[in-house]
Design brief:
The complex is a heterodimer of chains A (213) and B (485).
Chain A lengths: L2 H12 L27 H14 L3 E6 L3 H12 L3 E3 L16 E3 L5 H4 L4 E4 L3 E3 L4 E4 L16 E8 L3 E2 L2 H7 L6 E4 L4 E2 L7 E2 L6 E8 L1
Parallel strand pairs in A: 1-12, 2-3, 2-4, 4-7, 5-8, 7-12
Antiparallel strand pairs in A: 5-6, 6-9, 10-11
Chain B lengths: L6 H8 L3 H23 L4 H17 L1 H14 L3 E5 L2 H15 L3 E4 L3 H5 L2 H7 L3 E4 L2 H8 L16 H15 L11 H18 L2 E4 L3 E3 L4 E6 L3 H7 L3 E7 L3 E2 L5 H12 L7 E6 L9 E7 L3 H5 L15 H5 L1 H6 L10 H12 L4 H5 L9 H5 L6 H14 L1 E5 L2 E5 L6 H15 L1 H13 L27 H8 L7
Parallel strand pairs in B: 1-10, 2-3, 2-4, 4-7, 5-8, 7-10
Antiparallel strand pairs in B: 5-6, 6-9, 11-12
Chain lengths: 213, 485
């Protein structure tokens, strides 16, 4: 008998107390928990997102769509970035004011990306209640390694259309077939005497730009 | 992996370690307070908790169907599914898969299950070096040590010890620590970043566990903080995930419950810094090959126990450790397995059986105060299972080992306890004798020893003194003739 059969048989023997007629759906799951924790206007939801992002040490910026190229250029300059990687689907306009910064192709190896100062991406959506941005590897977010290896990540969120209130609202808008990365603040560890240190392996600086219009 | 030392023996050593006790006290109390605050933010916590328990029960009662569904979905998405009855088989499968790549080293995401099966040792025996990449696991590995807490495995080490370990050992494993490394956590984390980055960039094979597996879609979920998980799940060409069969959840939507319960209950965060989900393989992004090893290793035996099976709901948040007065004093090592604390006290004896001294003693590693049940995000009634397992250890009886029904004998060390229980039963059934005994005890109380010779329970505790007058006599004297209300 294969190990597969052994394990499945053991499970069936272990569950002799479960009536044969019982279907999985017969085991009741009460889903009366809240869809979202509070009723908010879109403005309030965006405000909560900003608050919660900042609470977990992401740096939050706000601007209009027209101001975005200048804002990104100033963030790159402030960080001293000389090289930047932006996935193919990132609108050319976003980096229009950053001509002095060298563009590195998305297909670079991890070792090459390790030399890159900054990555600029969009996102799939953002969750206000938890202060999370979710990437789903769409063309404006790119391969997973692109947002992982560089030390500085600028993530653009379109407000209000990309912002949801809660985790249940996020899951139903995301596709499990795509590889997802949920980011809530920069990487962190509390492994040494529970002292929180921001930035271990992922980007140590996460800047989120909330863009309107 | 089984440790022959019983819990009381091991705990006797650790309770004398003042450093360990100080660290544990600080850690458990800090996380406990933060967790309470994070949980209080959600008005519907109790409903989420009930839903989490119900979803896990649904899964466990139909686990065979869900595993088959999971296998189909993972395979359809380009992954390969393997089944391992026990630790040896899982280790053989992983070793074979690594060897097939021609590589002699792997990077690892923190995973309790690979610790349970002793994977690193098995790989080492086959000439494969496994690098732990979680900061705490790195500290443990470099210090040739064992984890002591589910969430913060190096909690028994302070910053100076960690600096010394890094200075002494990093060079032997790869990029050395700077000679002037201080003991500030930020500098230590930076040293770990540089040391491990070299390994991430070079790694061709990664080994992970998973927090959840979605049967409906074949999606695996890893929840983490540092980004070492993302590195391992994204950069190598081959990914091997070893996951206990009980980590299954039926649907994608079910994650809306667990991704709220786990971070708040574990690290006391609204959401942990990084969560990765993946379904099979994705062209051009991440590993080209994905293997899922589904592990039994005693889980189906636990499933056969209608009281004990609730332990399989566990999502490894470690909240029960942080509220446990026994864990706080004894530390994680005394539990002798990958699973310390209250959850370990009910999980380990079920996964391994209660034949040896350690496993037989674990159900007693509790004062039954119930704090663990209260904080459990999936409502595992740990005290209920502890009492159930105590009964099995003391009285023997029918249980399941390796898929077969067996009858176990009462454990030897518990003869005195059984005799005491029988005597107590007799005394309560014979009130006249009980009264006489109590009066005798009161009159002779000065002659009583403060400790019982030969009983380990009293080695670190004084016996309560016997009052000068039995309660019944006192009641009769002061409330003579009144009905007790």
């Amino acid at each position: 008998m294969s190990s597969r059969e052994t394990i499945l048989n053991r499970i069936r023997q272990a569950l002799t107390d479960v009536p044969l007629a019982e279907a999985a759906q017969d085991v009741t799951v009460d889903r009366s928990y809240l869809r979202r924790h509070g009723e908010r206007t879109p403005e309030q939801t965006a405000e909560l997102l900003a608050e919660n992002l900042a609470d977990y040490r992401a740096v939050v910026h706000r601007c209009t769509n027209a101001e975005l190229p200048a804002r990104i250029a100033s963030l790159l300059a402030a960080h001293g970035s000389r090289t930047v990687v932006a996935p193919a689907g990132v609108p050319a306009r976003w980096l229009a004011d950053s001509a002095d910064v060298e563009r590195v192709p998305e297909e670079s190896t991890a070792r090459q990306l390790d030399m890159v100062d900054t990555v600029v991406t969009g996102c799939a959506l953002a969750i206000a209640e938890t202060g999370t941005v979710v990437l789903d590897a769409s063309p404006d977010q790119g391969l997973r390694r692109v947002t992982l290896v560089p030390d500085h990540h600028i993530c653009v969120v379109r407000v209000p259309e990309q912002v949801v209130d809660s985790l249940p609202e996020a899951l139903e808008r995301l596709s499990p077939r795509r590889p997802l990365t949920w980011i809530s603040g920069p990487s962190a560890t509390s492994d040494i005497e529970l002292d929180r240190v921001e930035g271990v392996h992922g980007p140590r600086t996460l800047e989120v730009v909330l863009v309107r219009g | 992996m089984s440790d022959a030392t019983s819990f009381p023996q091991a705990a006797r050593v650790s309770v004398r370690n003042a450093q360990l006790r100080g660290n544990l006290r600080h850690a458990t109390h800090t996380i406990r307070a933060k967790r309470a605050k994070a949980v209080a933010e959600l008005a519907d916590w109790d409903r989420l908790r009930a839903a989490g328990a119900a979803i896990k029960d649904r899964t466990l009662r139909h686990l065979d169907d869900y595993l088959e569904q999971l296998e189909t979905a993972v395979t359809a998405a380009g992954g390969t599914v393997h089944w391992a009855v026990d630790a040896d088989e899982a280790n053989r499968i992983v070793t074979r898969l690594v060897k097939a790549t021609g590589e002699t080293e792997v990077v690892k995401v923190k995973s309790m299950v690979t610790q349970e099966i002793g994977l690193n040792e098995a790989l080492a025996a086959a000439g494969i070096r496994a690098y732990e990449t979680d900061l705490a696991e790195l500290i443990v590995q470099l210090g040739d040590d064992r984890p002591s807490h589910i969430l913060v495995p190096a909690i028994h080490r302070n910053r100076t010890e960690i600096r010394d370990i890094f200075r002494r050992q990093m060079g032997r494993w790869g990029r050395p620590a700077p000679q002037d490394l201080s003991d500030s956590p930020a500098e230590l984390a930076e040293a770990a970043r540089l040391h491990l980055r070299e390994k991430f960039l070079r790694a061709k094979v990664a080994v992970s566990g998973a927090n959840f597996m979605v049967a409906e879609t074949g999606t695996l979920v890893v929840v983490e903080s540092e980004g070492n998980g993302r590195m391992c799940l994204t950069l190598p060409e081959t990914l091997i995930s070893v996951v206990g069969i009980e980590k299954t959840v039926p649907t994608w939507r079910d994650l809306e419950v667990f991704l709220q319960l786990l971070p708040r209950s574990s690290t006391a965060e609204r959401m942990n810094p990084y969560t990765s989900t993946w379904t099979g393989t994705t062209d051009g992004d991440g590993p080209r090959e994905f293997h899922l090893v589904l592990l039994d290793n005693g889980r189906t035996d636990a499933l056969a126990d209608q009281v004990g099976r609730q332990a399989l709901r566990c999502i490894r948040c470690s909240a029960c450790l942080n509220v446990c007065p026994v864990y706080e004093r004894a530390g994680g090592h005394a539990y002798g397995s990958a699973y310390p604390g209250p959850i370990g006290a009910i999980l380990t004896p079920q996964l391994r059986g209660t034949a040896s001294a350690l496993e037989a003693s674990l159900p007693y590693a509790s004062s039954l105060c119930g704090a663990c049940y209260e904080v459990c995000p999936v409502a595992i009634d740990i005290p209920e299972v502890l009492v159930h397992l105590r009964e099995r250890v003391a009285e023997g009886g029918s249980t399941t080992r390796d898929g077969a029904r067996v009858t176990i004998k009462p454990a030897k060390g518990h003869a005195a306890e059984r005799a005491a229980m029988r005597a107590a039963r007799w005394a309560f059934e014979h009130p006249r004798a009980l009264r006489a005994g109590e009066r005798l005890a009161a009159r002779t109380r000065r002659a009583h020893p403060a400790r019982l010779p030969g009983l380990s329970w009293s080695a670190s505790r004084d016996l309560p003194t016997v009052p000068p007058e039995p309660f019944r006599d006192w009641w009769q004297r002061t409330h003579g003739g009144e009905e007790a209300k």
